[in-house]
Amino acid sequence: MPRSLTAKIGPSILNADLSQLSEESQRLLDSGADYLHLDVMDGHFVPNLTFGHPLVKCLRSKIKDAFFETHMMVSNPKQWIEPMADAGVNQYTFHVEPVQNVPLICRKVREAGMKVGIALKPGTAANFITEYIDQVDMVLIMTVEPGFGGQKFMESMMSKVSWLRDNYPDLDIEVDGGVGPTTINACAKAGANMIVSGTAIINSNDPAKVINDMKCTVNNALENNICNY
To answer: What is the pTM of this model?
Structure first.
């Protein structure tokens, strides 16, 4: 396992109080979050509807330096590349399932000045991305069906994480869906180093402890042994 990888915890702000989004986001960052995971849903690719680039731009005006990852659960990810880049997004993670030309989207995202993330639904095989893995910065393995928070963690998805880690040891691998203190061990053992967690962090009385504990678990699995208790 490469020592260059370290754990990064990105709370999903979808579970926060959206009426006080900047304050909630800053609270998460002050609690030790490494980045913010922004779930964008269009009501087509997934049945739910959340927020778009105007809200992200407003959030960026309040939070200047944090790393923003947008998880684009949308049918036409190409449509939102430029608006999200203008809104101040750092990484644009899109689903491969509705896209006919994945390399084109990857190129457009990079040309817009953002990092490239690709996301796989539970039913999409990990080796689907083999032909364009060299064009991405990160792969997101969904551990629930995308669209709604609070779903049960699918441990069977860890085989995809393990396959990616075995074949691409330096790759940033993110997991999203039902991840918290009771499921972080499975994610860490499989080789994930980027952890999205919503309700487990947001609803905790001590989000800093939850973030730190999960980060330690992942770093120990990565053999970095970076823990601050």
So the answer is: 0.95
